[in-house]
Structures are given as structure tokens and as C-alpha cells.
Design a protein that fits this description.
Elements lengths: L17 H13 L4 E8 L2 E7 L9 E2 L4 H14 L23 H5 L2 H5 L17 H8 L14 H15 L3 H10 L24 E2 L1 H12 L3 E2 L2 E2 L3 H7 L23 E2 L5 E5 L3 E6 L4 E7 L4 H12 L12 H12 L14 H5 L3 E3 L9 E5 L6 E5 L4 E5 L6 E4 L9 E10 L2 E7 L6 E9 L2 E8 L7 E9 L1
Antiparallel strand pairs: 1-2, 1-10, 3-4, 5-6, 7-8, 8-9, 9-10, 11-12, 11-20, 12-13, 13-14, 15-16, 16-17, 17-18, 18-19, 19-20
Helix pairs in contact: 1-10, 1-11, 2-6
């Protein structure tokens, strides 16, 4: 694998004003949008890049549904190699997994319908955990509408695309894409989570660095060409990123501008892949621009609104006069990006009394059995105990400390932690899972032999506020 790092340039040299990027950052901050990274490319040059510490350039970030665009690309390679066509019937690939009665609509469903989220389902199928469970459940779900006529966002359709490609190639998607996409683009072998059947999850599960996302976007912008080589078939790029299916009529929504083959159409003739809580690969062909963003936001439209307001109109056709002061300000701003750090009171006398006490926890959704705080060392240590092991997490004071923690949201992730006493009897810890959108703020009030624990997530597929737990000292 070669090092295909993107070239860097001052924004003005590529027709972008540093002031416009600063305005975008100001707007993100004023709306309290939790971005984790951004990389802006103009004419193939990186003109702005930054990571909100503790997020970092070399730590892959989970993509969630942005994974779908890579699944689509794998399908595109298989089509170009003559392994299938988008008009092949889905049932033809899984004769052993079909329900006893194959409905007319199921029989008519094509690969194209999987790719465009027009399978005919009115409710997304729910996978089960049995052998072949994910695909079997998809095929068993009622197909109430004629395929190709009704858009329903459907991650299970993406998972079936992955299963088809893996069946035809005899390789996992991550291995199939390695020589075709990842190695040519200089992307190290990524992590790609698997279904219970050992298939790469087609609808989510891929982890990449921000620059990897940007390289992918730049290749799409160039019609599948990377550094002079046709990497992704040009016909597939054109077809996959075009409007293949209608998905709404709201002119102000970037989720209602049409859908391609696992790509969204956007306003302003742009297109994108995206994932839950703000993982974006936005391609703006008219501006010759690509924007890669990772984040932990609940309002994904708000981020795109700011892109259209500040970044897109800043793209001028010719280089702009150098603006050393604005360029310097932008460099310093980008270099200093960071999530807020907890601050609080001096360590109270209570810290010595509760230090090293083990608090047994009631049954909870995270599977935590016990919690211990140790305030006796140079830095506090919070130990989280689940059913199998203990995870001691060092907690920084006024800075992030790095470690590992039990799985969160089903993901095993690195963690950065910072904490502070916010009252004489209350200690608060911010756990940032910096390979994902998630962070958890845990507030623990000590009352005699009890530790009363409240927790809140920044983003979640469920409630943000977690049920209160009352731990009891042994």
C-alpha cells in the first residue's frame, strides 16, 4: 500500500476564504453542534482540517450508515466484473433461505430495489439471531408494495446487498474491497463489524479515519478516478450517485432530494453518504469540493444547513488574494479545537472517605455490576465492573486521560475521561468514546453508604437520560 495522503493548500489559493471557514466554525459553536472532525477539499487540496480533542486524525471513527455507500461500491465492482446485474432477482441468491410461500412482490424484488431502498416493505424487517437470521428474516417479512415503487429507508436491504456480494465473491466485503478500493486509495485495512453469520454488516459497522472518508469522496467527485487511475467504475459512480428513487417533496430537507444506490441526493446538486449522528461524506460537483465530517449530533440537517450557508457559497472560481491574518486565525482555531473539559471544586474531604469503596449496582441496561472510585493516586481512577471483568479508567482533571471501557451501544471502544467535583458530595465524569459519536456524563452523589448515579448520553438511539442507579457499598 502506498501513502496517498491528500495535498494541503491555503484556502485562498483554492478559491475559498479562510473567513468563510471561520464563520462555519463559529456557527457550529453557537448552535452547540458537537462536531468531532472535518476535512474540506477544494480542487483535490485539503484547505481546512481539524479534530475536536480527544478525537484525533489517526483514530478511526464509526461511520454507521455511511457504511452503506461502501457496500454500494462493492456491489458496483461485482457488477463491473459480471458477477451480477442490478436487475437480478433477490430470491435467486438465497434458495435455501426463502419462506415456504414466496409472494409475487418478493419474487419481483431486484438488487436495484435493495440499493434504492424501494424493496416494497412498509416496515423495515427485524433480523433474528439464528443461523442465516438476518437474510432469512428479510426474505420472510411481508412485501406489501410492488418493489421499485415505494421508498422506505431500510438498513436490512443494505445487509442483503452485502450478503449477495459476499456469496458471489467468496470473500468478506472488507477483503473484497481491499485490493479494489482500500489499497489504491491508501486506506489501511479498516475495521468492519460482522453479523452473527460472519458477514460484513452492509448497513453500518465500518470504521474509517476522516481522511479516508475524504479520499473516498474525492474519488467519487472525479468519477471514480484516484491519482490518474480509474479505481471505481465510472458508470457505477454516475449511476449510484444519481437520483434513482424519489424520497420526499420538502425543498428544505436534504433527506427529500432523491436517493441513488445507497447515496443521498442533496440540495445544490450535491450528493452524500451519511451515517447516524452526523457522519458525512458530502460531494459538491459544481464547486469541485468535498467535505468529510464526523460528529455526535442529534440534528443532522442543522450541520448541512450551515455547510450550504457558509462553505458552499464561499467557493469562488478563481484563487483569492492571500489573507495572512485570516489564514493564521483559521490555522490556530483548527489546531485548538476541543470538546469542553469539566471544571469544578477542589477535592473535598469526602473523597478520602469514599475512595476505594465498591458500590454494587442494581441490574441495568449496560450490564454494569459495580462501581469503584479511587481518589488516592495522582489521578482519580473509576473502575467499571461488568459480568466478566473490571475496567479501570483513569480520569483526568482539567485534561483527558485515555483508556478502555466496557462496550457502549454494542461497540467496544477506546475512551477518554475527564472529571471534577461539582459539589462537596458529588463527583462528575465525562466519558468520551472517541472512536464513535457517543459520550456519557456520569454524576455520582455520595450519601452515606449509597452512591446515587445519574447518567446522560450526548446522542443515542434511545433516551438520552439514563435510569438512575443507587449503588450500595459492600
Amino acid at each position: 500500500m502506498t501513502d496517498n495522503s491528500l495535498p494541503r493548500s491555503a484556502p485562498e489559493a483554492q478559491g475559498i476564504s479562510s473567513a468563510a471557514v471561520l464563520a462555519f466554525l463559529d456557527a457550529v459553536a453557537s448552535q452547540d453542534l458537537e462536531l468531532h472532525s472535518l476535512m474540506l477539499l477544494r480542487h483535490g487540496q485539503v484547505v481546512a482540517e481539524g479534530w475536536w480533542h480527544p478525537y484525533a486524525a489517526d483514530v478511526p471513527h464509526v461511520l454507521f450508515s455511511l457504511t452503506k455507500s461502501f457496500t454500494s461500491t462493492a456491489c458496483g465492482f461485482a457488477v463491473a466484473e459480471g458477477r451480477l446485474t442490478v436487475d437480478d432477482r433477490v430470491v435467486s441468491f438465497f434458495p435455501d433461505l426463502l419462506p415456504k410461500r414466496v409472494s409475487k412482490n418478493l419474487a419481483a424484488m431486484r438488487v436495484r430495489d435493495l440499493l434504492t431502498m424501494t424493496t416494497g416493505h412498509t416496515v423495515e424487517p427485524v433480523p433474528d439471531r439464528s443461523r442465516g437470521g438476518w437474510t432469512r428474516a428479510f426474505l420472510a417479512a411481508p412485501v406489501k408494495r410492488k418493489p421499485g415503487t415505494h421508498f422506505l429507508y431500510n438498513s436490512q436491504a443494505s445487509n442483503v446487498v452485502a450478503a449477495i456480494v459476499e456469496q458471489l465473491t467468496g470473500e468478506r466485503l472488507v477483503d473484497y474491497l481491499r485490493p479494489r478500493l482500500f489499497e489504491p486509495l491508501g486506506i489501511p485495512t479498516p475495521r468492519w463489524d460482522l453479523t452473527p453469520d460472519g458477514v460484513c454488516i452492509g448497513g453500518w459497522g465500518l470504521f474509517l479515519r476522516t481522511e479516508d472518508i475524504a479520499r473516498f469522496g474525492q474519488t467519487l467527485l472525479q468519477g471514480g478516478v484516484w491519482q490518474g487511475r480509474q479505481v471505481i467504475p465510472a458508470a457505477w459512480v454516475a449511476e449510484a450517485t444519481a437520483r434513482q428513487a424519489p424520497n420526499g417533496a420538502d425543498p428544505a430537507s436534504d433527506w427529500a432530494q432523491g436517493y441513488g444506490y445507497q447515496f443521498w441526493r442533496c440540495r445544490h446538486n450535491a450528493f452524500r453518504g451519511d451515517g447516524a449522528f452526523g457522519q458525512y461524506c458530502v460531494v459538491m460537483p459544481e464547486q469541485d469540493m468535498v467535505l468529510a465530517i464526523t460528529s455526535g449530533v442529534g440534528n443532522m440537517q442543522a450541520v448541512l444547513d450551515l455547510v450550504w450557508e457558509h462553505i458552499l457559497p464561499a467557493a469562488e472560481p478563481a484563487p483569492q488574494p492571500a489573507d495572512p491574518a485570516a489564514e493564521q486565525e483559521l490555522r490556530e482555531r483548527l489546531a485548538g479545537l476541543a470538546l469542553p473539559i469539566l471544571s469544578g471544586l477542589p477535592t473535598p474531604p469526602l473523597a478520602a472517605q469514599v475512595s476505594a469503596r465498591r458500590y454494587a449496582l442494581p441490574e441495568n441496561a449496560d450490564g454494569l455490576r459495580a462501581l469503584t472510585f479511587d481518589f488516592g493516586g495522582a489521578q482519580p481512577v473509576v473502575t467499571l465492573q461488568d459480568a466478566t471483568q473490571a475496567y479501570p479508567v483513569t480520569v483526568g482533571a482539567g485534561a483527558w486521560a485515555f483508556g478502555v471501557a466496557p462496550a457502549t451501544m454494542g461497540l467496544t471502544l477506546p475512551v477518554a475521561a475527564a472529571g471534577a467535583w461539582i459539589a462537596e458530595d458529588t463527583y462528575q465524569v465525562h466519558f468520551c468514546f472517541h472512536g464513535a459519536p457517543f459520550s456519557r456524563t456520569m454524576t455520582c452523589r455520595f450519601d452515606g453508604d449509597a452512591a446515587i448515579v445519574d447518567a446522560r448520553l450526548n446522542v443515542s438511539f434511545g433516551p438520552l437520560e439514563q435510569p438512575q442507579m443507587v449503588g450500595q457499598a459492600a
